[in-house]
Automatic annotation (TrEMBL):
Protein name according to UniProt: 4-hydroxy-tetrahydrodipicolinate synthase
Pathway the protein acts in: Amino-acid biosynthesis; L-lysine biosynthesis via DAP pathway; (S)-tetrahydrodipicolinate from L-aspartate: step 3/4
Gene Ontology cellular component list: cytosol
EC number(s) recorded for this UniProt protein: 4.3.3.7
InterPro entries reported in the protein's UniProt record: Aldolase_TIM, DapA, DapA-like, Schiff_base-form_aldolases_AS, Schiff_base-form_aldolases_CS
Biological classification of the source: unclassified sequences, metagenomes, ecological metagenomes
Lipid metabolism recorded as keyword: no
Amino acid sequence: MPGFATPQAPFGVMLTAMISPFTPDGALDVAGGQALATYLVDELGHDGLVINGTTGESATTTDEENVDLLRAVVEAVGDRATVVAGVGSNDTAHSVQSARSALEVGAHAVMAVSPYYNRPPQEGLVRHFHAIADATDLPMMVYDIPKRTGVAIETDTLVRIAEHPRIIANKDAKGDLDAAQWGMARTDIAWYSGDDVLNLPLLAIGAAGMISVVGHLVGDRLKAMARAFASGDVQGAMDMNRALLPVYTGVFRTQGVILVKAALADLGLPGGPVRLPLVDATAEQRAVLRADLAAGHVRGFSA
């Protein structure tokens, strides 16, 4: 992995869960993916990108599209940013094959969300994550987001999952700071915030970094906030976080990818439409978003 990775933050501090750009007719825009990845890394200073995750609309992309986009992003920025491949599904065998494909095209790591819809028991979660970790020699992150998957990773279960030597991080979008503290105390895996509004609170209790959606727009500011907090400038970090509150609110007034793609379009960056069952932002939603982003002092948006 790129040289900024540390044992405490093995994928870097600031990562964004990148959208999958599509052309106006809904096809995968591979060149747009490379251009956006380059912008995020070189202009906004991202340490890494998660490709083919929830914000990448992985529920509606094909295996072939996922491999094509992942390969393209690795080629574009893989020498200077950590490229994490989202390989999660509710079919363990499918996730195993996706992990192997990610290895073949040069991903630095894999991330797998808890299986969704089938709501496995905790034992099933352990076996699922361990099977994916066994499939390659890549480091792996688990992703706990029960509001989407229908099942939470219990702390006792996470302790067992973390016993696997290649499972080295957890992306936490559980929204439970009590559970987060216990998870950090009882495991030695790196903790990443997966819920933008809780980025600073999670950093304050020991998280290593963030995997952000609003990072598409303010990744440089999030990284500055994390650096300020790590250096002991708690008030400075608090001030930066408060200035970002309108951005957090604005992007998540509806599904995050919908409004991120709307914002990227306003900035002239690759994004394109979303795929059904998601729907593109309405004119009214876009107007509210612009006001939110202007209130958050996002470059390219003014009151």
